[in-house]
Structure formats: C-alpha cells, structure tokens
Design brief:
The structure is a single chain. By secondary structure, the chain is of the alpha/beta class. The longest helix is centred in the N-terminal third of the chain and has 18 residues. The two termini are 16 Å apart. The radius of gyration is 17 Å and the shape is globular. The chain contains eleven helices and six strands.
Amino acid sequence: MLTFDCYGTLIDWESGILAALGPLLARLPAPPSRKAVLEAFARHESAQEAATPALRYSALLAKVHRRLAEDWGIGPDEEAANRFGASVPDWPPFPDSAAALAELKQHYQLVILSNVDRHSFAGSNRRLGVAFDAVFTAEDIGSYKPDSANFRYLIEHLAERGVRKEEILHTAQSLFHDHLPAKRAGLATAWIDRRHGSEGFGATLPPPEDVHPDFRFPNLAAMAEARRSG
C-alpha cells in the first residue's frame, strides 16, 4: 500500500501559497524574496498548528495570513485572510501527479494522510483525478503532522482494513512533517524530493534531526518509472 502526503508532494503548494499571498505581498513597499516568504510561512504555519491542533486548516491558514501581515508590519485584512484560508482548492497539482497516480493506482491501494481539512482536500482531489482508497485528514485526527498521533491514526485505521505496518510505504516531500515521524512510527518511506536543486526547505521547517528515507525520487513520475523498471 502507498500512503501519500498531498501538499508539497502531489499539489504544488509553494506556487499556490505564493499566488494566494500575492495581494498581501503587493501591499509591501519591498516584498521579501520567494525564499523568505516561504520560510516565513513555514514558521508561522508550524507554530499555529502546534498552538491550535484542532483548528480546521482553512481557519488556521487565515490565522497564518494575519500572523504574516503583523510580521511584515501590515494592518489586518479579515477578508484577505479568509480568502487565503479558502485558497487550497486553487493550488495547482504538479504536472506529473495525475498521470503517475493513475498508473500507481493500477498496482497499489492509495491512501492520503494530509494536514488539511476534508473540504479543502476535496477541491485538490478533483484536480488529481484519482479515487483514493482512504483519506485521513488533520480534521479527522484532531492534530497536525508531525504529531505522532497522525501516524498512529494512519497505522491503526489501515490495520482495521487488514493492512500491516510492514506493507505501507509512506510517500512524501517534507522531511519535517512526514519522513521523520513516519520513520519513528516504523514505516518505510519514499522521498519525493520536489525541491531538489533548490536551497533550503521552502514552506516546511527543517527536520530537527537527521532522517534517512528508504527511497528517493525527484518527482512522482520517477517513482512510477522505478516500479515499471522493477
């Protein structure tokens, strides 16, 4: 069975985040660099997820928008914050995601473990065009990755379907949100290194310790190709 993170792995959340923050950035006399914007988002999103683990992701994103505005010395704009919170369904998939998922679906069960709410994911799922065998969100679990509770939830609910932990390959981009807690939970992992060749960790925090995924691919198409090649 393949379990997937969605945002950063299947959906190009960095492009989506930057586009949705465009109106806020346009209010700045000297907007930060792309790298600085993504790093600021990573700090505030992770802090907000830790502070309000039961908050629905769309509402959490609105709070992140307010935090960023304050950080950058801009007055609050509730309408803009709420638009940012509702922007997840507009974030684009990576060009290879839909085709690679369709191919992998012919050979494996596919499951989502995502840090968003069900409504937001439903919009993204329409863009991905594949029927996942199960979808587990932060809204269902009541906490956000990298909390170990999210991976316990995944393992326990798949066990109810007869899937043993040893049969799961967790597939994700973020070392911080996914690979470190997945490895701690005893799962094998495949790193979809979407940021290969880019500096830093983008919209995620760096992992607090070294983590070693079992497999590494530059994109999902390469993972599907590896399956074909045996």
